[in-house]
Amino acid sequence: QVQLVESGGGLVQAGGSLRLSCAASGRTFSPYGMGWFRQASGKEREFVAGISWSGGITVYADSVKGRFTISRDNAKNTVYLQMNSLKPEDTAVYYCAAGLSYYGYTGKNYDYWGQGTQVTVSS
Fold first, then answer.
1. Which of 26, 61, 94, 111 is deepest in the core (most CB within 10 A)?
2. CA 50, CA 60: separation in Å to the nearest integer?
């Protein structure tokens, strides 16, 4: 009942920046938290960042804390992931997810997922 579409991925050099967007449609009036996950080739999907419905609480994986910022604009039904100081190890497909009253690191607790956007960081 919620559709998510990621955009903004691409190829950047190490040290560069990208801003990912996740546009939501459907039952967006429900109090969904949002999360960003990523999956590198041959690796398990991992949590990157989460944000509460109000935007008042954010959580980050240790690997991105201080470099990435998650934010949301509920009026636009959009969640963002600002990625700065990118490293080659950030290369992955990035997914956004919506969870009813959830925004943490456990992927199975999210209810809806986007199809992903590729981020590649060259060195």
1. 94
2. 7
Share of the chain above pLDDT 90, in %: 92
Specify whether the CB–CB gap between 78 and 72 falls below 8 A: yes
Residues of the chain predicted below pLDDT 70: none
How far is it, in rounded angstroms, from Cα 60 to Cα 105?
Answer: 9
CB 9 within 8 A of CB 97: no
Sole residue written with tokens 């999360």:
35
Identity of residue 23: A
| Integer CA distances (angstroms), 18 to 23, 63, 117, in order | 16, 16, 12
Amino acid making up residue 25: S
Q: How far apart are CA 94 and CA 38, in angstroms?
A: 4
DSSP string, 8-59: --EEEETT--EEEEEEEEESTTS-EEEEEEEE-TTS--EEEEEE-TTS--EE
Q: How far apart are CA 100 and CA 38, in angstroms?
A: 20
